[in-house]
Amino acid sequence: MSDWRALDHRTVVVTAANAAGVAVAAGLPAGIGIGGGTSPVIALAIVVPVALAGIAAAAVADEVRWRKTRYRVTAERVELHTGILVRKRRSLSRERIRSVDLTAGLLLRVFGLVNVKIGTGEQAGAGEGSLALHPVTKAEADRLRRQLLERAPAGPVAGEPENGRLATLDLSWVRFAPMSFLTPTLGVAVFGAVLQVAEWFGLQQGVITWALDVLRDLPLLAAIGVLVGIGLVVGVVGSSALFVEMWWNYRLDREPGGTLRVRRGLLTTRSISLEERRLRGVEVVEPLGNRLVGAARVDAVATGLVKQKENERTDHKTLLPSAPKAEADRVAALVLAEPVSPTESVRLRAHPLAARGRRIRWALAAAAVPVLVLLVLGVTVSAVLLHVAWISAVVLAPVAVALAVEAYRNLGHGLTGGYLVARSGAVRRGTVALQRRGIIGWTAKQSIFQRRKGLLTLTATTAAGQGAYSIYDIGESDGLAFAETAVPDLFGPFLERADNA
Amino acid sequence: MPDTPETPSEQDVPLRLRPPNNQLDPRAVRWWRTGFLLLFGTPCVVLLALAQFLLPARLWLLVAAGAVALAGLPFVVLLPLWWYRVHRWEITGDAVYTRTGFFWQEWRVAPMSRIQTVDTQRGPLEQFFGLATVTVTTASAKGAVTIPGLDHELAADLVRQLTETTQATPGDAT
To answer: pLDDT tens-digit profile of A240-278?
Structure first.
């Protein structure tokens, strides 16, 4: 068991295939570009050797990497030796390992391979606290996962939650997927993509003229309607497809040894393990679109779940995708091993009315910025913009006020059992339930405006999740009393009654 | 669970956070002031020097230099005094407690049992004034407590004291 192992040799084939894909994607437009200027034969003569050289280089580099990479699991540590020019010898103490995540893209899956990432719960920078094995066979990955995460229970634990399946995907949840900002974004992106592809083939002008010709026959409103319609359809299809890719075959399990495991993915499969000892709470997130249709998702608030890379997105902390609110509450309760989710059982207390005024003023100020810019432009450049200015003022002001009032209504804080619950946000309403014993410090922050209104922003710092969760614009005296009730003896010794100053 | 730990008669008097006991070293004012002086003075000097050589643009360079100097004046003269009044710190047997900021006043508390590392930093300016900054980090990515502008010997003592206290406290501080 303590002998050195190599990664799977087929990684070279996968890398070569990936490079071939890149070569085709980049070589095709390049070849057509060159061929347009000269002749197809010359284009082939240039593009094909370059592409082949690229593929060969990638394969050779990966072969060398494969030869130089060794890992082993000893009784105490996991060790990994890598590096071609600079040899790196890294090791993690096994008792500090908190997660073993498996990811397999389509190509890897064809070969039965999996990328493994072994992580500790440290808040270390990217790569510091984790070892990556790219790739090993599926069987080896499962063996590693079980070996590294399954440890004897830390002691006699009474009333342990039962193991087993906590949630599975209901395909009807796909209806919530288009209710996000992704839909309009994808809708706009598709027009850009069409023009980009057209440009590769030197057809951009032609496509634009053709589109204008088609639209010219329609009345203006109908033309706009057609464009928006196309964008919407693409956006809805795209965001639904993305949801299916991400969440196909989603399962949330509680495994022996106190581990939560999320498995999901249609083309790229992912397996994310989360040690329950790291869990400090959950956040029930309801973006505006989801809230309108009664949906919510559940995120874990756990230590050491930092976003590893920018492109990895944050969703490996998501325990449940957008699902009906009742399902979200049920899963939140199961994950926390509580009879009822704290986000549901808590009686949230509203914040002082002064907080509403602040929100309305912010919202109106934010809405005033584009209007003022348009006004200035209207006076200096073109009077048409003056009309755009007042129309946007009429549209933006009520939207701003509505969002501000909603933001105020969503403010709330409360205690239930061992949890502190805080809710805020209009566009993205988040209700976080944080274990009170997971709170490791308080920060109170007060701007000079808040001071005048007797408000402050109370922030609970924690080792988990974002590192800090804020209760915005709580009444000063109430807030401090609340902080002291929630976690005694942090702010307590430093509190005083205002009159004996 | 009771809403507040106080009796009803006390509840009429609002609660607030008392200022921490200790002020920073008075030299901190000079340290901040020098920092701002360098920040605003350097572009000012550059602009003035350019004004000596680029005669056609002289007027505008002088105006720009004046504007930078005017903008810098409150930072050099007033802000360090305000900061000195507001910045306070206190270390009890159980916690580190600080107050910072002026427009956004901030009170931070980190309990001893959750402290992970205690560091001092001394930039070149701080070394010149014999000052040091103590940073106390907890397991939270956002929970660090910073005390700037301490006498450097006092800072070293504090670090020693904090390290001893936190080592005596069991647990992994998360």
So the answer is: 998 898 888 899 988 877 788 889 888 888 888 888 888
* Per-residue tokens: A167: 């949630």
Q: What's the CA gap between A378 and A382, in Å, rounded?
A: 5
Length of chain B: 174
Q: Which two tokens stand for residue A81?
A: 């030796």
A306 to B141: CB separation less than 8 angstroms, yes or no: yes
User: Are residues B159 and B106 in contact, defined by beta-carbon separation less than 8 angstroms?
Assistant: no
Q: Could you say which DSSP state residue A437 is in?
A: G
Which chain A residue has its CA at the smallest distance from B106's CA?
A445
State pLDDT tens for residues B146-165: 888 888 888 888 888 888 88
Q: Do B142 and A484 touch (CB under 8 A)?
A: no
Name the nearest CA neighbour of A313 among A100, A17, A103, A96: A103
Gap from A456 CA to chain B (nearest CA, Å): 10
Contacts of B95 in chain A (CB under 8 A): 490, 493
pLDDT at B169 over 70: no
Contact A125/B at CB under 8 A: no
In chain B, what percentage of residues exceed pLDDT 70? Answer: 90
ipTM over 0.95: no
CA-based nearest distance A224→chain B, Å:
47
Q: Does B157 touch chain A (CB under 8 A)?
A: no
